[in-house]
């Protein structure tokens, strides 16, 4: 859209809107078609990420027991698993679907209420609007 953007994290409605956290528009009857499309695409991207993490944890089940290692080692352990996972994926090393059976999805506690509006960054709305325009220019899908 002619404006350089930095990387952003995807968040759900409970996160404050920041220029580095993209979150969906609040669901209500006043959303435009473009805003609904943005929410849909954000949700699709989020599900891809969840699936990637599920596969990562299934292939490298040590990630399910990270409480066994020191906090200093944890970033290196996660990084090593990510690199090895990507090497396996790049070389078509088969993913065994049975691995998924031993990875029970753990629901971490999440806030139930949206972040207060005071925590939101007004500049972030410009970032979300640019992304919204970009998604619209890409067409349906």
Supply the key terms:
single chain, 141 residues, mainly alpha, hydrolase, HARBI1-like, nuclease, HARBI1_dom, hydrolase activity
Quick summary:
This is ALP1 protein. This protein is mainly α and 141 residues long.
Q: Mind explaining what this structure looks like?
A:
Keywords: Hydrolase, Metal-binding, Nuclease, Nucleus. Residues 99-121 are annotated as: Disordered. Residues 5-86 form the DDE Tnp4 domain. Belongs to the HARBI1 family. Its main location: nucleus. This protein is mostly helical and 141 residues long. It has a domain at 31-94. 43% of the residues lie in helices and 3% in strands. The chain contains 3 helices and 2 strands. It has helices at 33-59, 74-90, 122-138, and strands spanning 9-10, 21-22. Strands 1-2 form a two-stranded parallel sheet. Helix 1 (33-59) crosses helix 3. The longest helix has 27 residues, at 33-59. The radius of gyration is 18 Å and the shape is globular. The model has no long low-confidence stretch (mean pLDDT 83).
Q: Which segments are poorly predicted (pLDDT under 50) over 5 or more consecutive residues?
A: none
What portion of residues is helical?
A: 40-55%
Oligomer: single chain
**Strand-residue proportion:** under 5%
Main location: nucleus
Pfam family, one: DDE_Tnp_4
Organism: Pomatorhinus ruficollis
Protein name: ALP1 protein
């Amino acid at each position: 859209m002619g404006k350089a953007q930095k990387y952003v994290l995807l968040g759900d409605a409970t996160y404050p809107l920041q220029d580095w956290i993209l979150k969906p528009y609040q669901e209500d009857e006043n959303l435009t078609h473009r805003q609904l499309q943005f929410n849909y695409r954000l949700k699709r991207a989020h599900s891809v990420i969840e699936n990637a993490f599920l596969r990562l944890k299934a292939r490298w089940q040590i990630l399910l027991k990270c409480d066994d290692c020191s906090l200093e080692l944890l970033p290196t352990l996660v990084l090593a698993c990510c690199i090895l996972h990507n090497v396996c994926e790049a070389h078509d090393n088969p993913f065994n679907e049975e691995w998924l059976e031993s990875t029970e999805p753990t629901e971490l506690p999440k806030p139930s209420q949206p972040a207060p509006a005071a925590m939101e960054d007004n500049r972030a709305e410009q970032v979300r609007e640019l992304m919204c325009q970009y998604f619209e220019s890409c067409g349906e899908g």
